[in-house]
Design a protein that fits this description.
The protein has about 550 residues and is an alpha/beta fold. It has 2 domains: about 325 residues, Alpha-Beta Barrel (TIM Barrel), CATH 3.20.20; about 80 residues, Sandwich (Immunoglobulin-like). It is built from 15 helices and 20 strands. The strands form 4 sheets. Strands 10-12-13-1-2-3-7-8-9-11 form a 10-stranded parallel beta sheet. The chain has a 4-stranded antiparallel beta sheet with strand order 17-16-19-20. A 3-stranded antiparallel beta sheet has the order 4-6-5, with no helix packed on it. The longest helix has 23 residues.
């Protein structure tokens, strides 16, 4: 982005209101990309956006979803070890949330189901090995990690999204792990298959699909999460057959045979990949596999709406569409290999936000970041779906040719911001790199991308009630100015958008709705506060001028 575009971004900011994946899966994605080294590119000059804004009234608060994936599989991000005490786990969680606040970010995507397990109290699946080192064993002293994360996130005004792997049942790097007696591989071994060193629930088995659906709905019912989230793991990434050319086929023969028997071996019209979902042809195994995944995605979306309409459902598929769809783009075909008809889900609006994993640098032409951004923006014809691409910020700390230039994540964010409201957010993989305060790329994010806080973009289709203007009073002493707010009747405030004015202009702070007083330094001349609902709807502003004692 040239300097002129950077200036446009600054103006817009003033005016506008792996994925884990697991490291192994992220690497699998990149291995399937054709380019293996990054081309030399000229970096745009960075211009620091303003933190204060002139005018009699403050501008609209900026809107941007700023999130990070917090991977628990293989203890990538949290907890960092399997033998931590309850207190140590909680301290690590608090450190992560405090770091998000420090970086002016506003959301966390926490992995709570890695391998048909649970990082929360569940009657459906066993406690995760990544919590205690033993699957089925609860934390000691006992606490519910998801309940803790929800409470601590809300204290800080951070959205918490619960991230699930729909089908994976055991990680390849946990081959010596003893599965709990209550694990599905022991209770219902007929629906679990070994493939590529992993265990997978067979998506074609109705019991397996129902189990995943029940797990999603159970979490939505019992926890006050802001969103639920799935990544790119549907049918597994293929493994090569060492004896024959091609891939090893997923061993779903029994469920396929049952489907054929139920269908009477009579071929029915095949569902078009871009049309409404119907039963696939009985003799088309690939379409049948895709429909298995389609039906689960659709059910999760519909079920979430029925239980808690305000909860967002996000999908983070592999970042490349079908071959030939995006100009100049080449690479792995998730439609054929993962049986993921991602473009259908987007077209049908079976989610509330779309986070394709765009894990390649801007200048890598076969998987060029800006080309993929534009493709997915054009494909997103549904007004009720946000586009928030996934960024592989973790490549800042990789070694060798795949290591990102320190400026790459900021440049990618500026690329998305240049598209305006059509791309008003992003998600970093993963939290680990953002915890490194010394990394040059993370420092650039802090100093150039996140200089002010931002509200999460509104999702009025999830609830459009407008909060009333709060009651506001100001107290002044010799050292400071204190704003005291009280919610009016009606839609409660999930956040407060608080602007304070001094000689340098208006500055924004975003606080959780549970907070009722805010202190500013001497010299503050006015404050403006508004309530924001949990679906992001901002109410009327309340201005209070500060009178000197």
């Amino acid at each position: 982005m040239k300097n002129k575009q950077s200036c446009r971004f600054i103006t817009a900011l003033a005016a506008c209101g792996v994925l884990c994946l697991g490291a192994s899966a992220a690497m699998a994605q990149l291995a399937n990309a054709e380019a293996t080294t990054q081309p030399v590119t000229v970096r745009p000059e960075l211009v620091k956006p303003p933190t204060r804004f002139a005018g009699d009234l403050p501008p609209e608060a900026p809107r941007e979803f700023r999130a990070a994936w917090i991977a628990t599989v293989q203890n990538i991000d949290w907890p960092t070890k399997r033998d931590l005490t309850t207190e140590q786990q909680q301290q690590e969680a608090i450190a992560i949330l405090d770091r998000l606040v420090e970086l002016n970010m506003n959301a966390a995507v926490l992995q709570i189901r890695t391998t048909c397990d649970a990082l929360y109290k569940s009657d459906l699946e066993p406690w995760s090995i990544y919590l205690t080192g033993e699957q089925g064993k609860a934390p000691e002293p006992y606490y519910d990690p998801l309940e803790f994360w929800v409470a601590e996130s809300q204290k800080r005004g951070i959205e918490l999204h619960a991230w699930f792997n729909p089908y994976r049942a055991k990680h390849a790097q946990a081959k010596d792990t003893k599965l709990a007696a209550s694990h599905i591989a022991n209770t219902n071994p007929e629906v679990v298959k070994e493939y590529g060193g992993f265990l997978w629930m067979d998506p074609g088995e109705p019991f397996a699909a129902q189990r995943s659906y029940d797990v999603f709905m159970d979490v939505i019912k019992r926890y006050d999460v802001d969103g639920i989230h799935i990544d790119d793991y549907f049918y597994p990434y293929p493994v090569r057959d060492p004896k024959h050319a091609g891939d090893v086929d997923f061993p779903d023969g029994p469920s396929w045979a049952k489907h054929l028997e139920k269908a009477g071996k009579t071929a029915m019209p095949t569902r078009p990949s871009t049309g409404p979902s119907t039963l696939p042809a009985a003799d088309d195994r690939s379409d049948w596999r895709r429909d298995n995944v389609n039906q689960l995605v659709k059910r999760i979306h519909e079920g979430s709406r029925e239980i808690k309409p305000w909860v967002k459902f996000g999908i983070s598929p592999f970042g490349i569409p079908r071959a030939g769809r995006a100009p100049g783009i080449a690479g792995f075909d998730q439609y054929e290999k993962l049986y993921a008809d991602a473009e259908l889900w987007l077209k049908e609006g079976w989610c509330d936000y779309w986070t394709p994993q765009l894990y390649w640098p801007i200048a890598q032409k076969p998987q060029a970041f800006p080309v993929l951004v534009d493709y997915w923006i054009a494909a997103n014809t549904n007004k009720n779906v946000h586009f928030w691409p996934g960024l592989y910020t973790g490549r800042l700390i990789e070694a060798g040719a795949r290591k990102f230039h320190p400026q790459e994540p900021v440049d990618q964010i500026n690329q998305t911001r240049a598209r305006g409201e059509k791309a008003n957010g992003h998600v970093h993989f993963s939290m680990k790199v953002l915890m490194d305060k010394t990394d040059p790329g993370v420092q650039l994010l802090r100093d150039y991308a996140y200089v002010t806080p931002a509200l999460v973009p509104a999702s009025p289709w999830l609830g459009d009630k407008v909060p009333a203007a709060p009651e506001a009073t100001v107290r002044v002493d010799d050292q400071s100015v204190t704003l005291i707010v009280k919610s009016s009747e009606g839609e409660p405030a999930r956040w407060w958008a608080v602007w304070n004015q001094n000689a340098e202009g208006w500055g924004l702070e975003v606080h959780p709705g549970s907070k009722t007083s805010f202190t500013f330094p001497k010299g503050t001349t006015a404050v403006v506060v508004s309530a924001v609902s949990r679906t992001g709807i901002e109410g009327a502003r309340q201005r209070t001028d500060v009178k000197a004692n």
